[in-house]
Amino acid sequence: MAIIKHKEQRVGVFIDAQNLYHSARNLYSRKVNFGEIVKEAVGERKLVRTIAYVINTESQEEQPFFEALTKAGIEIKTKDLQIFIDGSKKADWDVGIAVDAITIAPKLDAVVIVSGDGDFVPLVEYLQKHSGIQVEAVSFKKSTSSKLIEAVDDFMNLEENPSQFLIGYRKKTSRSRIRPQSKPAAKTNSTDKPKPKPRTRRVKK
User: Fold this and answer.
1) Which of 2, 77, 172, 199 has its CA 20 to 30 A from that of 68?
2) What are phi and psi of 188, to 5 degrees?
3) What is the model's pTM?
4) How many CA atoms lie within 13 A of 61 on its CB side?
5) How far apart are CA 116 and CA 137, in angstroms?
6) What is d(CA 125, CA 111) in angstroms, rounded to the nearest whole number?
7) CB within 8 A of 115, min separation 6: which ones?
8) Cα angle at 47 between 162 and 66, to 5 degrees?
9) Separation CA 129–CA 59 (nearest Å)
10) What is the pLDDT of residues 7-37, one digit of tens each?
11) What is the DSSP secondary structure assignment for residue 172, as one 8-state letter?
């Protein structure tokens, strides 16, 4: 299927916030600018809906992050972090994202999945086959499933311009030191003898 993008195309963006958060932290030790990602992924097309799927923790330390998403015009859906008796934790939105994407698909021409999780491959194939819509993925290639990249109609690699999509990221530039050229030593004639220093005579008082 050839990739098609035009101004009248209706787009829905579904953000797996946890997946992208951990990818950015592991690869760059930076936080993601989700607003910029949505802007670039949609382009000049019609944005119908943008949903970010996030996890609530007991400390509530993620509240500023939720507020930042809301200010960027991104709808958020929250789920509490599950902590089991053995201490293990579970926090994923795979099923929730899949259900929403399939439900909203009839109102869309393209679905953008912001995640590198290979578990979304069945969702991609279902949307392509049963809804006949275009499916795109956005993530960092190094942390993205190769099967997901193969399955989608288009893949946007955030690694191509990390300074645009990461908060506080600056590209490291290697500076080569330029050593000052040393002046060539003056040539001396081997027959020339060094002139003796003039002696100073002390006058007794």
Assistant:
1) 172
2) -120, 145
3) 0.78
4) 1
5) 8
6) 12
7) 15, 16, 19, 20, 97, 137, 138, 139
8) 60
9) 42
10) 999 999 999 999 999 999 999 999 999 999 9
11) -
Residue 183's pLDDT is what? Answer: 55
> CB within 8 A of 200, min separation 6: which ones?
none
The CA dihedral of 44, 49, 52, 53, to the nearest 10 degrees, is: -150
Q: Where do the structural domains in the chain lie, given as residue ranges?
A: 10-167
Q: State the virtual CA torsion across 45, 49, 52, 58 in degrees, nearest 10.
A: 160
Strands 154-157 and 31-32: unpaired
Is residue 76 a contact partner of residue 52, using CB atoms and an 8 Å limit? yes
Residues 37, 165 contacting (CB under 8 angstroms): yes
| Structure token digits, residue 74 | 């991104």
Question: Is residue 114 within 8 Å of residue 152, measured between CB atoms?
Answer: no
H-helix segments, the chain? 17-28, 34-42, 63-71, 94-104, 121-126, 146-151, 162-165
Condensed to tens digits (0 to 9), the pLDDT of residues 170-179 reads: 776 544 444 5
Give the 3-state secondary structure of residue 102.
helix
What crossing angle do the helices spanning 63-71 and 34-42 adopt, rounded to 10°? 30
Is residue 162 classed exposed, middle or buried when 0-12, 13-18 and 19+ CB atoms within 10 A define those classes?
middle
